[in-house]
Amino acid sequence: MGLTTKHLLGIKDLTKDDISLILQTAEQFKEVLQRPIKKVPSLRDVTIVNLFFENSTRTRISFELAEKRLSADTINFTSSGSSVSKGETLLDTVNNILSMKVDMVVLRHSASGAPHFLAKHIPAAIINAGDGINEHPTQALLDAFSIKEKTGGLEGRKIAIIGDIMHSRVAQSNIYLLNKMGAEITVCGPPTLIPKYIREALSVKVNYNLKETLEWCDVANVLRIQLERQNQVLFSSLREYNLVYGIKRRMLDDLKKDVVIMHPGPMNRGVEIDSDVADSHQSIILQQVENGVAVRMAVLYLLAGGSSSN
Amino acid sequence: MKSILSEPQLAITIKRLAHQVLENHINLDNTVLIGIQPRGVYLSDQLVEEIKKQVPAHKIQYGKLDITFYRDDIRKELHVPNQTDILFSIEGKNVVLIDDVLYTGRTIRAALDALMDLGRPEKVELCVLIDRRFSRQFPIQPDYVGKSIDSIITQKVKVYWKQKDGKEEVMILE
Predict the structure, then answer these.
(1) Is A107 a domain residue?
(2) What is the pTM of this model?
(3) CA torsion angle for B48, B49, B53, B58 (degrees, to 10)?
């Protein structure tokens, strides 16, 4: 029993059984988080460093809480204020931290493949907390957990991923995961923000029409426009984007069903999602955040136990 | 392979354990029964059924406790967690912990830690079907015992349950 992998670099490397095991373990951690003492001693001999070379609110706090709830010792590192600005390389930074006896590394980096590079060169277990435009595996896992919790399963569910697919690691990880678990996926957004060959490469449906997509889906996962990763003009204005692809209350009310609304955060209210949608009964955005801690506990627990035996 | 308890013997033993628990907890209001996941639950399910038969008027507080996250060997071997299902407070209660086999005492050590994280019980007792004497690694003793056996380390004691294994029997495997 255990995961087939020593690191969590991406959903791409996980098997269906791995994903099921993580989700199943997360359910038990969710129960732990409802207790008066929301803490278990499982990882009290493990030290984890959270290396964040890119901004983050939810993911960093969620990982840190997950580690603390498992009784692990944690160190937080953010690139601003560190020796990175003095010219130290990623590998040197990590090796220096590891020489202080650290067992696991949680890494967020703006370069796609940074965690894969580290995994080749250092002995510690690596968890990818988002690398460039490649993957964000724990987000996909918590999204899957939330969908499962809300709708009862993943297989055969119709999931729409709406917004900036091109620059979104959340989209890519979600697509890998949902495909493996047998869900149906449609990506929706302006043609300039959807990779040209995504239909063939990732076997998803593409629909440029938001209304049709919403009519089709059970769950809509709405993504943020990643302006920080776009170095050219891909749509004319945020206002125009909102008019054509923003999720609006009226649009949802016209449907004959309740579509579940998700968003990985941070939200830009009034751009990809309107406030009266984000705060409505259909939205499970805050449940996603809550589930994030349980899912990350499961990942840390499964990677620290058994497989890393010495 | 040797059988230590046959199906009818097992049924009688569980009946006796139920009576013994009731003897000490004649008023069940402040008592909670907790089976240890995964295999202790088969015993606790039957035990609770028996107790219900004896005192049908009483509301019995019964829960299931998973100790996976409290194990001391998670670095050696990975265990997949089961559900903890305790929908009541154990604060100030008399807890009867229920497991199938008491061997090294490590499971019970973990269970006590897990229990303390759920609240502060007044008292904790231990009820086991099989007590493998002389193989304890912690100072832990049961309060209610189905059957005590002397076995050596290389032997394995296996309790079979109908729902899980299709038969009801306790055996020593060499």
Answers:
(1) yes
(2) 0.89
(3) 40
